[in-house]
Amino acid sequence: MNVRGMIRPVLLAAGAAFLGLQAAEACTGITLRSKDGGYVVARTIEWGGSDLNSRYVVVPRGYVQHSMLPDGMQGLRFESRYGYVGFAVEEEPFVAEGLNEAGLAAGLFYFPEYGRYEAFDPAMRETSIADLQLVAWLLGCCRTVDEVREAVAHVHVVGLDPRASTVHWRFADTTGRQLVLEIVDGVPHFYENELGVLTNSPGFEWQQTNLNNYVNLHGGAAPSQSFGGLRLTPFGAGSGMLGLPGDVTPPSRFVRAAFLQTTAPQQATALDAVLQGFQILTNFDIPIGVEFAADQTPTDIPSATQWTSATDVKNGRIYYRTMYNSAIRSFDLRTIDFAHVGYRSAPLDTVTRQPVYPVQLD
Questions:
Q1: Comparing 350 with 2, which gets the higher pLDDT?
Q2: Where are the domains of the chain?
Q3: Among residues 12, 26, 101, 86, which one has the least CA distance to residue 54?
Q4: By C-alpha distance, which of 326, 337, 314, 223 is closest to 37?
Q5: What is the β-pairing status of strands 105-110 and 230-232?
Q6: CB-based contacts of 320: which residues, under 8 Å, 6+ apart?
Q7: 7-347 CATH fold
Q8: pLDDT digit string (tens) for 117-176?
Q9: What is the DSSP string of 287-310?
């Protein structure tokens, strides 16, 4: 990353973009496994306040970056041991989701009100890294989730702007393991994520415990039964999941994601699982008007769900589609020579309007 002498303006932009407001700070993550051994992590990213100016970045081996810090100076210097492809928001260094050539996938999810980083200490600047750059740093230096855990123990994760939401993180590797990292009261906590679902606040352990409130839900139809002399019969398929929460709060999305993921039939191949992941996550697209009160003017973007990605961890492919183009696009990391490719960055979309193709009749 070239700091370009713009750290302070970037901080202000980041703070404005990631304020802890009621503006659809929402992300939903799921995990799918295919019969051929494929392992897919998929997620959405939402922000209803403005266009996040999302970009892809291709980062080669040996690329040097410096962390931004809240005092406007440079922090941790880090050089990429592994090349990676990432999707960044607002600024190129702020990678929100990515995959490296060693098979480590990493992403950040909003975590407002429940996370708290340690206070920034200028004396520790050389080992301090901004929360929004943690994904970029770890993709460049780690192969496995165990290496992630070890690396985080040797740095100080700090926030760039006190107005901004905190985040938590999801990491997955080719072994099929997945970890969630939450920093609470300045202390990093790692959780094994065997379920493979992640949303936002409250904390990950609470979200898993809350699933017990929905122990009665199941796939398929509820059985008919007698009720006070009446015979009650389901109106249609899916009645076993009556009571599944449909709102867009993080606890409700966590429950809904868990049940849609676990009731989904296992696909034959990793690519089939990728496509299934996109289909499941359409249930979490947030219309732009949902988070605005009647007297507020919605943002002039087509969706609060700005993009959705799916990562085929074992086969080294990362896919995405956006609010401007629902066509699925992909990067195959196995075809990229990270020893020689130059650093690249470009918008996820060059045309900000959904393409419509006419059907040509013979």
A1: 350
A2: 7-347
A3: 86
A4: 314
A5: unpaired
A6: 56, 87, 307, 308, 309, 310, 328, 329, 330, 348
A7: Penicillin V Acylase; Chain A (3.60.60)
A8: 999 999 999 999 999 999 999 999 999 999 999 999 999 999 998 888 899 999 999 999
A9: -TTTTS-TTSPPPSSS-SEEEEEE
